[in-house]
Amino acid sequence: MDVSEAVARRTSVRAFKPDPPSAAVVRAILEGAARAPSGGNLQPWHVHALAGAPLAQLLQRVAAAPLQVPPEYAVYPPELWEPYRTRRWRNAEQLYAAIGIPREDKAARLQQMAKNATFFGAPVGIFLSVDRRMGPPQWADLGMYLQTVMLLATAQGLDTCAQEYWAFCAQPVRDFLGLPPERMLFAGLALGWRDESAPINQWRSERDPFEAWGEMRGFD
Ligand SMILES: Cc1cc2nc3c(=O)[nH]c(=O)nc-3n(C[C@H](O)[C@H](O)[C@H](O)COP(=O)(O)O)c2cc1C
Fold first, then answer.
1. CA 160–ligand 1 middle distance (angstroms)
2. What is the 3-state secondary structure (H, E, C) of 22-60?
3. Does ligand 1 have an atom closer than 6 angstroms to the CB of 161?
4. Which atom of ligand 1 is nearest to the CA of 205?
5. Distance of CA 217 from the midpoint of ligand 1 (Å)
6. What is the pLDDT of residue 123?
7. Averaged pLDDT, 205-209
8. Which helix (H) or strand (E) is 131 found in, with range?
């Protein structure tokens, strides 16, 4: 699979089969992704990958803990404006429509959202953390690392879902992993093979056309 195919095939998968990928494959993905660029080659990412008993223990602890309000960091700006507000709204509408949850059924929506805290049933849960003293450029570096992990996973036939939701469960995760106080939990990543029969995996997110966000000048 070449890079273009991996980019086109990657989607956020929200229902997984339980079969675990091998330790060697997971390690190769996480290690290979460290070829991602970072400003000044700081390599500001820290990574924890959990499977089997440690993953089950962590998920139990998270399930027993209250949701963290406020979360580890502001996942979105307080009042989203256009066009972001509509994009976010449409994305959520389409996701819930794909699994037959109507807009007014808040309880069902919350129940679906809570599945984030199980890594959507994925056999591997990965956490990315970063030193709190780092700024937006290093957060961008983490994003590049994260996308490289997702593309390498795709090249292995695996599936992923990046999850900021973990910012709402940061304390039990931090305690379990033994993160030092200066280390902020940035995101989780579910990793495994998609459950092809799950309705939530049938839906594909939209993208705005190039003209909405891009411009090219000086080309023939
Ligand atoms: C940093 C990051 C955090 C995300 N957090 C979540 C999350 O907590 N839960 C979730 O279901 N999807 C999450 N997503 C997935 C986005 O919703 C998804 O990327 C977007 O809707 C586009 O869909 P696609 O990934 O299938 O192309 C996250 C994606 C990124 C890049």
1. 10
2. CHHHHHHHHHHHHHCCCHHHCCCCEEEEEEHHHHHHHHH
3. yes
4. 23
5. 31
6. 98
7. 98
8. strand 124-131
Nearest CA to ligand 1 atom 5: 163
Residue owning the nearest CA to atom 19 of ligand 1: 12
Instruction: Choose the residue to mutate in 45, 127, 150, 163 for probing ligand 1, maximizing ligand atoms within 8 Å of C-beta.
Output: 163
Name the band, by pLDDT with cuts 50, 70 and 90, for residue 182: very high
CB of 117 within 6 A of ligand 1: the answer is no
pLDDT, tens digit, for every residue of 1-55? 999 999 999 999 999 999 999 999 999 999 999 999 999 999 999 999 999 999 9
pLDDT (0 to 100) of residue 214: 98
Domain annotation for the chain: domains and CATH numbers = 3-75+117-203 (3.40.109.10)
pLDDT at position 90, please?
A: 96
C-alpha 123/C-alpha 159 separation (Å) is 11
Residue 192 CA: distances (Å) to CA of 20, 77, 91, 114, 199: 7, 31, 23, 19, 17
What letter represents residue 204's amino acid?
R
Q: Look up residue 200 and give its amino acid.
A: I
Nearest residue CA, atom 16 of ligand 1?
12
Judge if the beta carbon of residue 60 lies within 6 A of ligand 1. no
Backbone angles phi, psi at 160, to 5 degrees: -145, 165
pLDDT in tens, 69-128: 999 999 999 999 999 999 999 999 999 999 999 989 999 999 999 999 999 999 999 999
Q: Would the CB of 154 count as within 6 Å of ligand 1?
A: no
